[in-house]
Amino acid sequence: MPAYACPKTLDEALDHLASGAWTVVAGGTDFYPARTGRAIGEQMLDITGINPLRGITKDGGYWRLGGLTPWSAIEGAGLPAAFDGLKCAAGQIGSVQIQNTATIAGNLCNASPAADGVPPLLTLEAEVELSSRGGTRTLPVAEFITGNRKTAIEPGELLTAVLIPVESATGIGCFLKLGVREYMVISMVSVAAWIQSAADGRIENARIAVGACSEIPRRLPGLEQSLAGLTVDDALDPALAGGIEAACLADLSPIGDVRATAAYRLHAAAELIGRAIRQCAKNGSWGRP
Amino acid sequence: MTKTAFTLNGHTMTVSTGPATRLSDVLRRRLGATGTKVGCDAGDCGACTVLIDGQPVCACMVPVGRLDGRHVETVEGLAEDGTLNRLQRSFLHHGAAQCGICIPGMLMAATALLRSNPAPSEEEVRQGLSGVLCRCTGYRKIIRAVMEAHRFEAPENAVQKGHAVGGRVRRVDGAPKVTGADIFGDDGAPAECLAVKVVRCPHHRARFALGGVDRFVEAHPGVVRVFTAADIPGENRFGVIPAFADQPVFAQGACRFRGEAVAMVVGESQAMAELALDEFPVTWEPLPALMTVAEATAPGAPLLFEDREGNILTRGLVRRGEVDAGLAAADTVVEGAFETPFVEHAYIEPEAGYAVRVGERVEVHACTQSPYMDRTEVARILGIDDEAVRIVPTSTGGGFGSKLDLSVQPFLAVAAWALKRPVRMAYSRPESMISTTKRHPSSIRIRIGAGKDGRLKALDYLGVFNTGAYASWGPTVANRVPVHASGPYVIADYRARSEAVHTNGPPAGAFRGFGVPQTALAQEVMFDELAEKLGLDALEFRLLNALDNGLPTVTGQVFETGVGFRQCLEALKPHWRRALADAERHNAADDGARPRPRGGGPRGVGIAGMWYGCGNTSLPNPSTIKVGITAGGKVVLFQGAVDIGQGSNTVITQICADGVGLPMERFELVLGDTDLTPDAGKTSASRQTFVSGKAALLAGQDLRRNILALSNASGSADIGLAGRRLTIRDGDGERIIDLGDLEADGGGFVLWGEGTFDPPTQPLDENGQGEPYATFGFGAHMVELEVDTGLGRVKVLKVTAAHDVGRAINPTLVEGQVEGGVAQGLGMALMEEYLPGRSENLHDYLIPTIGDVPEVETILIEEADPLGPYGAKGVGEQALIPTAPAVLNAIRHATGARLRVLPATPERILRAIQEAGKG
After folding, report:
1. How much is the average pLDDT of B815-841?
2. Which residues contact B667 (CB under 8 A, 6 or more apart)?
3. What residues of A are in contact with residue B273 (Cβ under 8 Å)?
4. What total of structural domains would you count in chain B?
5. What is this model's ipTM?
6. Of A167, A187, A206, at which residue does a domain stop?
7. Do A72 and B55 touch (CB under 8 A)?
């Protein structure tokens, strides 16, 4: 019978991690499906008993999302409109059952190229807080995920929180995903957009991130720069599409798989980016009342 | 071992088990709470949904160790003091449960939703139930049941004597489906069972060698024995069609497909739960595999079976008139080539069961569609008489054709027989997907010609079907398809040829329609293109050419009555005009020049027709039903037609009750059990209402005659039964009989009725001419949808389905079949493709969710069949056939895109739109 531990405190969990080869399990929604029809052979460190790692607070310069916060709590939280993309993604991860169980830390640590939580976090310039017995460090999400199912987490570390700088909390965000069915679908493409505008109604700062179109979800910096200065009317101009397509071609490297070919993913990414930008402009201004 | 204490439906439970164990396993195996179902162990199906501290979660992904002090609620806790709660009653009343395997999950998700939102909108119900898959119902009645639950008052469901047929009678087997008490394949095994794991080939084709099996057994305490081909006591061979039985229980030396069994390990359940099969001593030598029909028929391709030249399993042909001359004489000819993939049945219940040896007999309790066929096959594998095998079907959590073939039965029977201990097994979801049958992939070429007047002249069809590694139902598909390739239309010059070709894919077998859905796709899509070329409205073109009473089919069969296809089209006409006008209005308002903020796009409307013969093709397929009355006044119906969710338990009771003239609620059922119930054939080919239903009517009438004979009463006499007092009223006369005074047989029965019906058919000659079926069901679907032309994504808005069912014995159940068939048809049209080795789970293989099935309006046409019970015909397969072509026709109407390959994924649709733009 393999070992199992369900610590109540972070220190206890970190002590375990420092002392042996544990597989950390939070929601379990990636852990168990990977073991269908098989015995569970590894030592499981179940961290869901550490209640302080759950919840959303505003803490100095950051919004702090505890690592164990489930997606349903994020979707239901009272957060600024700039977090709308994250909330929308939260409501489209798996099913209600998954959203009640799966955590934001798990989504990041699992590091799937199609993780729906990641593109909005990239647009919010979120950071992860990594704790170990040696202390705590933070890393931008963009540096935390290093490859398909690979992260920069070190042995002995736990992802204890996601930190979103308050600078990202103004503006408007949105998230769109494409799958072949309505619910419970792994994204063929997902897109998050986040836009801050100036008093003159022009885009001051735009961030666009795409999931499932490269080894890790990524931002499109060239496109983001080209969006600066755009008005809502500019965004509705079909001519915008050309620039978006070029940016996708330059920055994305999708693969073909059981869900879609690479070419279709590129096309769909460009189409969804255009829609995401227009959605941010839907009330005739960039998210301002 | 760790102790965990939590409450289960308010009762404190303490379990001592491995803390990483899935909560679903603990509930089912440790606590006996088998109401929570396991469909995938991966969070994909939601059947195991329970509430933890009020929140719905999948119990298959929760380690029990984290539950200390928490509150778990399952389906067993819903009924209040033994009375069904409002939601459960609403489910029953609305016919929301068919097979019932997903219902516990649906009920728990709905319970959580209703607590926070007692009167949810449809959209809120969809959202709340989005995590639970259902493969039977098409979700529509589930949505309705949840929306109505808050105000549901149980109306009286009293069925008047003699008027059960035609009534919206609740399922007679419904209550256990909403309480969790129903016993499915994995729910009834005795605790002392040994467990089985099967070693399967990981390659599409491979040679293999076993070595050191004895050492493996010794090294694994708790493992009792390993079985291989050498351990099969009888013939190591099975298959649904005796002449083609070609599949070994365990392969010998070489495997023909990924998932083929080579050995099984049997042991004590705890040891087996911890056993990793990767340690099993087998070495594989992968060989080049034939994965497509083109590869399998290429010159020099290796043969899967030495005696099947060119890897051709079988061919079919129907020929009438002179097709080449007919096409040459046609004014307009269209031609198309279509491709469809493997489709997985994806019932939510993976195959499961247990077996027990009882003296010199063996009993197999498992989910199945065909108990008597299972009996014959298990007997042959064990080398014993049929009578030494007892098959007891458990409740079956969906079948759709695949559970006609053996799955767990041979393993269970062989192990229980040899070890003289009860043995159980349940397939994992991947195991179910890789090892069981699929819908045949097809490559179809079709040419159709018509005259200037719009009348069809000729149709030439060639369908090549990938039948996979073993025969299964391949010959049936090859025979059925050429009969149906015309659709329900009059065509004088006709040729339809079919081939079933072996490849190293999974065995392709029966799946709702036996090749006809693939065939109808090609034929109905090309009909639209033909109608367009002729300048005719798609519906009017079909009406002009519709088969009717007195007109010959392509096999020369003429029905004088009962052909209701024209009526289906006429019934759709007002809907068709309304939908076309709606689409035109929508499309005029949206010229597409401005980017659409949230997608959306042009609307289209499509129509497609269908016919489908009920029962076996030109082969006998009798059913026998018995009904008896005991000396104590119990009316017992021996009903062996397996109910896999479609409702045969209820329909057959309704028919029999009216046949006797007694109220339905007096009937007790003895369900499928080869020791107790006579052979009612297989649940297949849309035959149970038509064939077994007719047998039930004859049995009921027989019993009625025998009752009336007691008093020489006339046929119109009224029969009453109160306790053991039988009252026969005839005119003014009344005779009261105390059943206790009659002589009882060994079973305590004093009166019997028995009925057998075998639909009359005639063999087909060398040109396929003859009378293949005693009746056909007819129908037509109209699909309204919107195409997102930027992404190729389709949103189906509504399906209107008209079906000639002869007589709707139970309109609620018929609607359930139609809605479920539409849902599977939408899945086939838009998303489903099984790729061996790549989509072996329910997150890579996608079936429609509750958000993917729109409103379905069912129009029932009752063009009585002269043979069917009260005029009834089958509807089970009929309901799926026209959906996919109607979808493709609607997409073309909306965008001009011509799709020839299923599924019509967003990518394929987008490409077809772009090509249409160029054209």
Report:
1. 98
2. B172, B627, B635, B636, B637, B653, B656, B657
3. 39
4. 5
5. 0.97
6. A167
7. yes
